[in-house]
């Protein structure tokens, strides 16, 4: 089943906390803090459910809900500090399936998302249509998307490393080129170790999130290369 959720919340601490709790429940969650970022993400990824705050810095969450209801089949959950009955009516009128007030119990939120995903399974449950034989790299926000549509958020260093690999196309990326391009040479003898730790952690992240550990290959005595197809979004 496709379990992709987008969480739109401008409070960074709250967003990261909720995303982490939902991921522990088995969801694949992408967080963002503005309407602009939200619209960019939904046009490049295949989400099933959106959890949306109302008070965003650039646009009302109600507008986002209306857009999703008019243009997609996604499930919509509004999560906001606005508790008045008029606010709730506006939320449901905008197309929300659920309306939760902050703070919300993560178990209740998780149950609502699960319910929506079960309902939407005929539309989103089969990922085979979205499968390709290639990974996708998006520099805007540093994301990797697996051939099965699983999205992985990268750190800036990890993103820069993937970009270097992608820029070499089918060639091997020399280790000294990576050390120079990513600033590890300034760390003296510790640069090689720092690079090795970063690559190891990245491989582990990819394996944990996507169940795949073949994207990055080590060419012993020389550097790195891509083990699978990778395209730039």
Structure commentary:
A five-stranded parallel sheet has the order 2-1-3-4-5, sandwiched between helices. It has a four-stranded mixed sheet with strand order 8-7-6-12, with helices on one face. The chain is elongated, with a radius of gyration of 20 Å. It has 233 residues and is α/β, with parallel strands linked by helices. Helices cover 43% and strands 21% of the residues.
Give the key terms.
8 helices; alpha/beta; 5-stranded parallel sheet
Distance between the termini: 24 Å
Helix share bin: 40-55%
Helix/strand order, N-terminal first: EHEHEHEHEHEEEHEHHEEE
Strand order of the largest sheet: 2-1-3-4-5
What class, by secondary structure content? Answer: alpha/beta
Quaternary class: single chain
| Proportion of residues in β-strands | 15-25%
Q: Sheet bearing the most strands, described?
A: 5 strands, parallel
Average predicted local confidence, pLDDT: 85
> Stretches where pLDDT falls below 50 for ≥5 residues?
126-131
- The total of helices stands at 8
Rg calculated over all Cα atoms: 20 Å
Blueprint (SSEs and pairs):
Layout: E1 4-8, H1 12-24, E2 28-32, H2 35-42, E3 49-52, H3 61-71, E4 75-80, H4 85-93, E5 98-101, H5 106-124, E6 134-138, E7 143-145, E8 151-153, H6 156-167, E9 173-174, H7 175-181, H8 190-210, E10 216-219, E11 223-226, E12 229-232
Parallel strand pairs: 1-2, 1-3, 3-4, 4-5, 6-12
Antiparallel strand pairs: 6-7, 7-8, 9-11, 10-11
Short note summarizing the structure:
With 233 residues, the chain is an alpha/beta fold. The protein is 43% helix and 21% strand.
């Amino acid at each position: 089943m496709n379990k992709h959720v987008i969480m739109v919340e401008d409070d960074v601490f709250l967003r990261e906390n909720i995303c982490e709790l939902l991921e522990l429940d088995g969801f694949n969650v992408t967080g963002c803090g503005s309407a602009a970022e939200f619209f960019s993400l939904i046009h490049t990824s295949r989400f099933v459910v959106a959890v949306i705050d109302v008070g965003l810095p650039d646009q009302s969450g109600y507008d986002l809900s209306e857009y999703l209801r008019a243009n997609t089949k996604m499930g919509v959950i509004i999560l906001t500090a606005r508790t008045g009955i008029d606010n709730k009516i506006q939320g449901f009128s905008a197309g929300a399936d659920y309306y939760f007030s902050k703070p919300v119990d993560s178990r209740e939120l998780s149950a609502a998302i699960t319910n929506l995903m079960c309902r939407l399974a005929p539309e989103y449950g089969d990922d085979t249509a979205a499968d390709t034989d290639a990974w996708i790299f998006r520099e805007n926000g540093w994301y990797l998307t697996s051939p099965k549509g699983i999205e992985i958020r990268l750190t800036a260093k990890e993103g820069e490393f993937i970009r270097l690999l992608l820029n070499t196309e089918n060639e091997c990326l020399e280790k000294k080129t990576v050390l120079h391009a990513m600033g590890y040479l300034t760390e003296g003898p510790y640069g090689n170790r720092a690079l090795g730790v970063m690559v190891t952690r990245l491989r582990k992240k990819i394996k944990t999130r996507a169940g795949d550990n073949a994207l990055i290959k080590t060419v012993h005595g020389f550097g790195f290369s891509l083990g699978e197809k990778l395209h730039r979004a």
